Amino acid sequence: MVFTLTQLTAFFLVFGRLAGMVTVAPFFNKKQVFAMSKVTLIFWASTLLVFLVPLPITPPDTLITFVLALVVEVLIGVTIGFVSEAILVAIEFGGSLMDTQAGLSGASLLNPLTGRTSTLISLLLEWTSIMMFLQINGHHMVIAMVHKSFSLIPIGVIPNFSLAGKYIANLGTDLFGLALQLSVPILLIV
User: Fold this and answer.
1) Three-state secondary structure readout of the chain
2) Taking Cα atoms as reference points, which of 90, 78, 66, 85 lies closest to residue 155?
3) What pLDDT shows up at residue 1?
4) Measured between alpha carbons, how far is 186 from 189 in angstroms, rounded to an integer?
5) What is the sign of the dihedral through the CA atoms of 50, 56, 21 and 2?
6) Phi and psi dihedrals of 177, rounded to 5?
7) Residues 118, 108: contact at Cβ < 8 Å?
8) Residue 62 to residue 41: CA distance in whole angstroms
9) Which of 27, 55, 113, 183 is the most buried (most CB within 10 A)?
């Protein structure tokens, strides 16, 4: 099968959006998932999605516009991955609040996933939330979100990032409240 130039351009733009999502999304961004399997997943998902997404009406015609379109697609993918990762980070933050109040923050361990020290309860809650994320097929939902994003924000269209920034800021305040609610039982007992 021969790819046209428009399909090849669309492939690289889809590849960029998926690569942005995989670098930030939960489970995909962990060090235990091999880099080659991530690249393989991105490549084959891009190959399949290029036939499902609407092609750009006017593909980028110069190298500069192509690179800018690729950067925009990566930013869209990073935004999708960040929103899905923020929920797990809120749970981990709630665990660190519990550890701080219970006096266990001195017994922190090096977390090999993130490369920083984490407290015991936050590690427990992080791994539990990752297992629950996989159990409810959250990784499939994140990939489905990326597929749905192509109909909401077509390839080559520059979205309004200010609305996304406002949404992420509101999400951050809501998730901070969720982390506080998660740690309230330990806060009240101690």
Assistant:
1) CCCCHHHHHHHHHHHHHHHHHHHHCCCCCCCCCCHHHHHHHHHHHHHHHCCCCCCCCCCCCCHHHHHHHHHHHHHHHHHHHHHHHHHHHHHHHHHHHHHHHHCCCCCCEEECCCCEEECHHHHHHHHHHHHHHHHCCHHHHHHHHHHHHHHHCCCCCCCCHHHHHHHHHHHHHHHHHHHHHHHHHHHHHC
2) 66
3) 60
4) 5
5) positive
6) -65, -40
7) yes
8) 28
9) 183
Distance (Å) of CA 156 to CA 20, 116, 161? 15, 37, 14
Q: 117 pairs with which residues across the strands?
A: 110
Task: Give the closest residue to 80 by CA, choosing from 138, 9, 10, 1.
Answer: 138
Residues 82-136: tens digit of each pLDDT:
888 888 888 888 888 887 777 666 666 666 666 667 777 778 888 888 888 889 9
Who's near 174: CB < 8 A, 6+ residues apart?
none
pLDDT in tens, 15-34: 999 999 999 888 888 777 78
Single-letter amino acid, residue 89: V
